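Good morning C.,

I know you're traveling, so I'll keep this short. The sequence:
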Amino acid sequence: MESQNPKHYDLEERTFLFAQSVRTFVAKLPRGIANQEDTRQLINASGSVGANYIEANEALSKKDFLMRIKISRKEAKESSYWLRLINTGNSAAVDNERQVLTQDARELTNIFGAILRKSQ
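The tokens, ready to paste straight into the viewer:
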């Protein structure tokens, strides 16, 4: 019998769940000018990971596919950056959630990097 890996998703679904989890996380953060700007950037980057992956799957050429995958990888990296900057208000639970999201962003970065290497 095959073991089920809880992180084994269709990549479109996984990127959707990442963006959705970021939005849930952001709602728990303390308000402030810096967090307001950083969370806006994080929300944009996290949503762009999956949106560009969907566009890659609909690409009209290999060049277009590779460009969209590169953008997905870039946006996953950018998500990690914004997650690092965000102030969690010294909440251990929220900081733990940030660590989980940061790991997800790193994994997505690695997945898109592997797709690029195999596709070139």
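Safe travels,
E.
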